[in-house]
Recover the amino acids of this structure.
């Protein structure tokens, strides 16, 4: 933290959700040390030691930073598997591999963008103002607090740290207390790369006191948070007195719409919801909208597909799905399955803890046959391996139900007629829509409408999120 490793007086245990064993004991950073991380970030930014460095030099140091992470592949993947309960193939391919590609491409994207350019003010307006130049300049925001979730600690860390640092900001990263160990690698990488003291700190805690300090401290200029909508609302309130910039990627209850000519794709689409992440992804399309007259066919097909999913310890390379993160999260799944049934829904497959897995927070991949979009299982983000199938009368009805949500993070439309499917996608009130395919890239933005968040991550918009815009009007003395 702030250029050196700091141990607190207390420790807390990180638990393996697959067998409830301890992954390790982690030192809890005292509130005073979180304060010092903020103070050092403020000092490092105000001194210009990083912000005033040429962008290509920042890029070189960050590539060295990433080289170190790449060199720790085996240990880092093992840590992710243990603390997050994610299958090895997901930890290797997505958390590790995709994160590094995203990080390096973000650096390239930043270097390809113009961060100072002429403003298109008409010449006659310049003349009347006595100015000869109007310039728009993109500058770093300042001190950024980055708060990441448990389900994708490495990806979300990279998604915040790299664009923020490339833009010249100083960053304090606070990972989820459920999966903090893998994020300590960012601190080790900063040390190896020689980032100036205070430019990047990682603060680890078992509770929320440090996070609340980061979201309310007057020396912090921006909060970038990924997590639940409920916590996002609290962050907005905590940031309001100091009018911080806030970027939020929050909950989702995304819909996947199958047009009549693509119903046979439904089973494959349903698999993507639960495989690897056990449904613990904010973009998971957990509402499946299908033609009413083919709903039963889809429910049966998805149930057959889910019956083929091997649930087991994430170290088992044949297991497609591991546990949810905690006992509380498993209980949430159970509660919403019960609520679905109480409100007219039916469990077509799953709905309980799997037999033979006595330890660990496992929950069966679950298919709910839902009567309508008003069912609690269709309204609330469950964040587990539970999908609901709902029938629609026609395309207008499908669009209406897809948009009838407090959330708007992602969505999917499947159709053999690509033009028709794209027309449906344009009508959805959501930050991203995948039509027959998906793209995860440093060059493509993500973010939410409505209560799914504020701002964007990735893409040019994700870099601009960490920058202020300054207008320079320049003229000669008269």
């Amino acid at each position: 933290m702030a250029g050196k490793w700091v141990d607190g007086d207390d420790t807390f245990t990180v638990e393996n959700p697959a067998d409830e064993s301890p992954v390790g004991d982690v030192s809890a950073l005292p509130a005073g040390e979180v304060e010092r991380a903020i103070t050092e970030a403020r000092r490092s930014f105000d001194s210009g030691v990083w912000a005033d460095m040429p962008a290509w030099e920042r890029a070189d140091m960050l590539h060295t930073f990433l080289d170190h992470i790449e060199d720790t592949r085996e240990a880092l993947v093992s840590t992710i598997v243990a603390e997050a309960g994610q299958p090895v193939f997901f930890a290797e391919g997505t958390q590790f591999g995709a994160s590094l590609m995203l990080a390096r491409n973000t650096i390239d994207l930043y270097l390809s963008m113009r961060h100072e350019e002429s403003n298109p003010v008409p010449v006659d307006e310049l003349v009347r103002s006595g100015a000869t130049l109007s310039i728009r300049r993109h500058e770093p925001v300042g001190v950024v607090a980055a708060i990441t979730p448990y389900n994708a600690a490495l990806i979300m860390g990279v998604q915040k740290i790299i664009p923020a640092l490339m833009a010249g900001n100083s960053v304090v990263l606070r990972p989820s207390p459920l999966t903090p160990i893998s994020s300590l690698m960012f601190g080790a990488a900063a040390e190896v790369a020689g980032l100036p003291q205070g430019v990047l700190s990682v603060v680890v805690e078992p509770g929320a006191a440090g996070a609340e300090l980061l979201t309310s401290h007057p020396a912090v200029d921006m909060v970038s948070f990924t997590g639940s909508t409920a916590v996002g609302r609290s962050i907005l309130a905590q940031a309001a007195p100091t009018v911080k910039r806030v970027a939020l990627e929050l909950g989702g209850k995304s819909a996947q719409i199958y047009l009549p000519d693509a119903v046979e794709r439904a089973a494959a689409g349903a698999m993507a919801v639960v495989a690897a992440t056990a449904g613990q992804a904010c973009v998971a399309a957990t509402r499946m909208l299908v033609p009413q007259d083919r709903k039963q066919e889809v429910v049966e097909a998805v149930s057959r597909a889910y019956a083929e999913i091997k649930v087991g310890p994430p170290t088992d390379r044949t297991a497609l799905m591991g546990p949810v993160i905690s006992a509380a999260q498993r209980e949430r799944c159970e509660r919403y399955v019960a609520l679905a049934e109480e409100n007219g829904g039916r469990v077509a497959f799953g709905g309980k803890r799997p037999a033979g897995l006595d330890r660990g927070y496992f929950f069966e991949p679950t298919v709910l046959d839902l009567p309508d979009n008003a069912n609690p299982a269709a309204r609330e983000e469950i964040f587990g391996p539970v999908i609901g199938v709902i029938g629609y009368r026609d395309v207008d009805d499908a669009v209406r139900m897809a948009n009838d949500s407090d959330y708007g993070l992602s969505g999917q439309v499947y159709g053999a007629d690509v033009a028709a499917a794209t027309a449906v996608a344009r009508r959805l009130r959501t930050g991203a829509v995948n039509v027959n395919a998906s793209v995860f890239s440093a060059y493509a933005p993500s973010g939410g409408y409505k209560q799914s968040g504020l701002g964007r991550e990735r893409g040019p918009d994700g870099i601009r999120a960490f920058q202020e815009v300054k207008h320079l009007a320049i003229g000669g003395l008269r």
